[in-house]
């Protein structure tokens, strides 16, 4: 029997959830015995090469590329997990949600104290760049999400527990000590 | 004078409870070792019935346990799935209605709204996020008023007073436009102890004593190890 396949991605996140994933420490040796990784920054596979059993996504959606990647994940993954505060609630990036996008960009590229007044002031607008969304969206407001693991970051123990529960086909029960929003 | 207070008996989820006339269902439950989840309630303060998280059912009717006095023979429904889910829904509504970003909040770990979310195992709110535009306002020299996190429980309005009994906080407008306002001069004049009390009265991270954030390490905060309400349930033995 072939191993279950896992894929991961970080969208509008800080990669902290992935770092926490790596914090499962030596259990990662057990994990690679149990599963196979497909598209993920962990093995640097850039595109899906086969159907995936569990997709894990960190970060919300702040631009068109995030939305595209998220939809690709939904298409290829049987189970899709929202990992961490940003994926579930928008998190820190969503602090811009009350500010119009133009104002945000002007602040960053025109009015920031570190802008050199001698430089021509340019706002990135190349058509190859992803378009910034009007606000940062939690993942479940764009595609269907099957499971949520809160935390900033979710602890390695929570990620481990979720993965092992899924692999054993058990429902995920989160003990009080592992359910944290910070 | 009779030595013992008059006693009335009633039940919560079938469990027999004894209390004295005039006590609210919530207080009586607490005295009998039963936790009814609440947010805007503060012991000793006039109840506001603002948040409705303590909603219970008596004879098919819903009522706020913090304002309704217990009565002889009452059969209160508290820990039943549909009421618990409704309470959870209120917590979720509060989460989407404001901007509650726990990782950036000084009150995280000591926050009653967050603690309720933990207790109800809220993984994601069922409602769409509103991301309202709110501000952070200095409330005098000692306190910060973070409107993004305010849940309008009115604890500060009811409970924070100067020595000559003036209120320091007040409520402006109504319904979804409701906003807490502060008297800058009175807030600045609050002695240190009272400024800290104002922060403690706030169930969330909306009223903050400046310059003292993140003093307690993760793992030692109020709700890190034990769910909110466990102290009441434990007291019963």
How many structural domains are formed by the residues of chain A?
A: 1
Mean pLDDT of chain A: 95
Please summarize the sheet with the most strands of chain A: 5 strands, parallel
- Record the strand order, biggest sheet of chain B: 2-1-5-3-4
Portion in strands of chain A:
15-25%
**Largest sheet data of chain B:** 5 strands, mixed
Q: Identify the biggest protein-protein contact and residues per side.
A: A-B, 27 and 27 residues
Low-confidence stretches of chain A: none
CATH class of chain A: Alpha Beta
Using the CA coordinates, give the radius of gyration of chain B: 19 Å
Number of domains of chain B: 2
Order of helices and strands of chain A: EHHEEEHEHHEEH
N/C terminus separation of chain A: 39 Å
Written account of the structure:
- The complex is a heterodimer of chains A (182) and B (237).
- By secondary structure, chain A is α/β, with parallel strands linked by helices.
- Chain A has one domain: Rossmann fold (3-Layer(aba) Sandwich).
- Helices cover 31% and strands 19% of the residues of chain A.
- In chain A, the strands form 2 sheets. Chain A has a 5-stranded parallel beta sheet, with helices on both faces.
- The mean pLDDT of chain A is 95.
- Chain B is of the alpha+beta class.
- Chain B folds into 2 domains: 71 residues, Ubiquitin-like (UB roll); 123 residues, no CATH class.
- Helix content of chain B is 25%, strand content 17%.
- In chain B, the strands form 3 sheets. Chain B has a 5-stranded mixed beta sheet, with helices on one face. A 3-stranded antiparallel beta sheet of chain B has the order 6-7-10.
- In chain B, a hairpin with a 3-residue loop joins β6 and β7.
- Chain B is globular and about 50 Å long.
- The model of chain B has no long low-confidence stretch (mean pLDDT 94).
């Amino acid at each position: 029997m072939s191993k279950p396949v896992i894929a991961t991605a970080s969208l509008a996140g800080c990669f902290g959830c992935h770092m926490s994933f790596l914090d499962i420490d030596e259990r990662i040796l057990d994990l690679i015995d149990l599963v196979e990784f497909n598209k993920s920054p962990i093995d640097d596979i850039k595109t899906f090469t086969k159907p995936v059993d569990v997709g894990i996504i960190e970060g919300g959606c702040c631009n068109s590329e995030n939305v595209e990647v998220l939809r690709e994940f939904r298409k290829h993954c049987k189970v899709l997990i929202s990992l961490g505060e940003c994926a579930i609630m928008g998190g820190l990036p969503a602090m811009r949600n009350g500010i119009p996008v133009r104002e945000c960009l002007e602040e960053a590229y025109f009015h920031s104290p570190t802008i050199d007044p001698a430089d021509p002031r340019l706002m990135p607008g190349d058509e190859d760049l992803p378009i910034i969304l009007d606000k940062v969206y939690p993942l479940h407001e764009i595609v269907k999400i099957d499971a949520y693991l809160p935390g900033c970051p979710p602890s390695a123990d929570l990620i481990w527990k979720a993965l092992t529960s899924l692999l054993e086909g058990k429902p995920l029960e989160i003990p009080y000590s592992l359910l944290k929003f910070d | 004078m009779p030595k013992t207070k008059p006693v009335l008996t009633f039940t919560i989820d079938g469990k027999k409870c004894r209390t004295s006339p005039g006590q609210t269902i919530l207080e009586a439950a607490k005295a009998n070792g039963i936790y009814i989840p609440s947010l805007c309630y503060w012991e000793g303060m006039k109840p506001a019935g603002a948040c409705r998280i303590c909603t219970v059912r008596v004879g098919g009717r819903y009522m706020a346990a913090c304002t309704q006095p217990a009565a002889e023979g009452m059969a209160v429904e508290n820990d039943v799935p549909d009421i618990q889910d409704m309470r959870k829904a209120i917590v979720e509504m509060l989460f989407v209605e404001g901007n509650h970003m726990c990782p950036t909040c000084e009150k995280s770990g000591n926050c009653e709204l967050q603690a309720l979310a933990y207790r109800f195992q809220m993984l994601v709110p069922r409602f769409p996020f509103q991301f309202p535009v709110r501000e952070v306002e200095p409330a005098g020299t000692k306190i910060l008023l973070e409107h993004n996190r305010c849940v309008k429980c009115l604890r500060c309005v009811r409970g924070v007073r100067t020595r000559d009994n003036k209120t320091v906080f007040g409520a402006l407008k109504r319904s979804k436009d409701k906003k807490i306002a502060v008297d800058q001069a009175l807030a600045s004049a609050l002695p240190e102890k009272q400024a800290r009390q104002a922060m403690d009265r706030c169930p969330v991270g909306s009223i903050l004593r400046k310059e003292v954030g993140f003093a307690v390490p993760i793992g030692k905060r109020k709700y890190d190890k034990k769910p909110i309400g466990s102290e009441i349930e434990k007291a019963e033995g």
